[in-house]
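Could you join me in thinking about how sequence relates to backbone shape in a protein? We need material for that, and I hope you will provide a protein of your own picking. Label the sequence line and the structure token line clearly, so we can match residues to local backbone shapes. Would you write everything just below, so we can both look at the same thing?
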Amino acid sequence: MPVDRHLPSDEARDLLALVRDIAHREVAPTAAAEEDAGRFPRELFRLLAESGLLGLPYPAEHGGGDQPYEVYLQVLEELAAARLTVGLGVSVHTLSCHALAAYGTKQQRAEHLPGMLGGGLLGAYCLSEPSSGSDAASLRTRAVRDEGGTGWLISGTKAWTTHGGIADFYTVMARTGGEGPRGITAFLVPGDAAGLSAAPPERKMGLKGSPTAQVHFDRVAVGDDRRIGEEGQGFAIALSSLDAGRLGIAACAIGLAQAALDEAVTYAAERRQFGRPVAGFQGIRFMLADMATQVAAGRALYLAAARLKDAGQPFAAEAAMAKLHCTDTAMRVTTDAVQVLGGYGYTADFPVERYMREAKVLQIVEGTNQIQRMVIARHLVGPETR
């Protein structure tokens, strides 16, 4: 049964109906085979763009959907339930557009956002590096002024880049000043820029259809018109983007957990042991009840954070809480789903083993859950003392 959603408008209800139809017809039927083959569904992302689903939380004047985060995140949840590669891909693309949409000049937004939001382009976000993951402020990729002083040359390597090697544009954080967060600036780099290349995709335990790769910058030239925000503002822009992006990860996690719960409920109702459905045994019933409660709690938490964002109120702590709780929930629920299915759950004949492998990465991306605890604690009791 579809999730019973409380949506703010008829437009939002029509949008969710469209998303469910696309997820049912275009996403879910090929998910298992394409993940097993490691295929990224680029044509599907073109369909999502044509359907207006790649720019939902951004202004309509630039090709966006003018939807509140409360609605956009529930779209992500539906897509992730059908295939996490798709839900996560939309979330990462939306994250990649955030810097320009929120900090770009009027001219930059008019020039670039229509293609990014509704023109079929696919984005990637470049912050992490081989030697700076959680400690993002220590990044080493550097941008220096070119000889004419009108542009920049970017050199360095970014790591763990979703859509690395296939993206049409990259939002890149590079060092233009001294050490620390105040020396970082944001740039919008075309995917076909000379000197930009990608390593072979990482070999991952899950999400095999979503390419994750190192991206190399060898004196990649960009004009000053592709600098986003002020020099030295890049780290603040990155943190702002991540606050919003963590809500996307939370929604994707609940979508994945919901898919695992649905599979477990269906199996428990149909599978018979000792003369009755296994759903009739109290041990299984209690497991399913706990799983459903965790999913509902996670959904309520990410939606509460989204409503704060939509109201223009601070939401960074709540975003961290949502990312922490929802991704931990996805790991617990998918693991329990495998247990409900027993030996069958451990086989590739059922999707729950894939869900469990995919859930693990959600506890790591866009700030590990240890980082989320640090963020939450900082809001509660201030900075750490040394």
Q: What stands out?
A: The chain has a mean pLDDT of 96. Strands lie at 123-126, 142-145, 151-162, 169-175, 184-190, 196-198, 212-223, 227-228, 272-273, 276-277. The first helix runs from residue 10 to 37.
